[in-house]
Design brief:
Length: 282
């Protein structure tokens, strides 16, 4: 069994953002208090791994009561993902050993630049003790007994890494935007049933969830069926409200949810698909 804890799901500045007066940053709802993006992996054999170590790393470790850390996996070199590395010093002191950090060579170079004092020939007492390990996409490695497979992702235009650990996969970026507010004309044949509509969103997945959000109510990852949701384009406000109602358990007419074993999709528009955050076929 693998336990995944989202340490943070905020923006690169966290939420609320300093000096921002928007309704989210001024919200009293605790769900609007989010730290920088990071995750904690705990395996059955006691291995504990942090994915990224941003500026909120210290606070996240204290909040979750982490007493031992076996490794840190870095997705990329942006400061909101590496800015807290200095705080591994506490683990160095308690365990008496260096922390293993796994990253691509480009990311390692940034870590060495930003924390150059940790790699000095004659380091000052108390600097973070780090062992850097180079990893590459699709080349498995192990942290103790846990096998990890790096997978390639794209964060805007920057190549980043996600990680597969057993049946769990972690990637910092999936569907990020609705590519067109005008909708895409689709002709869909699903096991003989036809849909001819202009769709704002078309999701095809397997199971009840996609992107961590429960989208279907009667589905199973084991049933061998595609689970499909189509959001028909009306006006943007109406479509957005309808999708919100669907996610809250309603059944708006412009949201179509169905299952099929075979799906054929055609469109008159040259529109790229998105497969787990990656550009797919057109």
């Amino acid at each position: 069994m693998i336990k995944l804890t989202f340490l943070g799901t905020g923006t690169s500045q966290g939420i609320p953002v300093i000096s921002c007066g928007c309704w989210v940053c001024q919200s009293e709802d605790p769900r609007d208090k989010r730290l920088r993006t990071s995750a904690l992996i705990e395996t059955q054999d006691g291995t504990t791994i942090s994915i990224d170590a941003g500026p909120d790393f210290r606070q996240q470790m204290l909040r979750e009561g982490v007493k031992r850390l076996d490794a840190i996996l870095l997705t990329h070199e942006h400061k909101d993902h590496i800015g807290g590395i200095d705080d591994v010093r506490a683990f160095n002191y308690v365990t008496g050993r260096a922390i293993d950090i796994y990253a691509e060579q480009r990311v390692q170079d940034r870590v060495k630049h930003d924390f150059d004092y940790a790699f000095s020939e004659h380091p000052y007492p108390g600097v973070p003790e780090i062992n850097l390990h180079a990893i590459q996409p699709d080349r498995p490695f192990r942290v103790r007994e846990t096998e990890i497979i790096p997978i390639r992702g794209i964060h805007y235009k920057l190549p980043v890494l996600g990680f597969r650990i057993g049946k769990l996969a972690y990637l910092i970026e999936g569907i990020k935007e609705v590519r067109s507010v005008h909708g895409v004309p689709l002709e869909i044949d699903a096991d003989g049933e036809r849909f001819d509509l202009k769709s704002l969103i078309a999701l095809i997945f397997n199971g009840r969830t996609a992107g961590g959000i429960q989208l279907t109510r009667r589905a199973s990852i084991k049933d061998g069926m595609f689970d499909c949701i189509l959001l028909e384009k009306k006006n943007l406000f109406q479509s957005t409200v309808a999708m919100g109602r669907y996610l809250m358990g309603g059944n708006p007419k412009i949201v179509k949810q169905f299952q099929a074993r075979q799906i054929d999709i055609h469109s008159t528009v040259d529109e790229p698909t998105d497969i787990d955050g990656q550009r797919g076929a057109q």
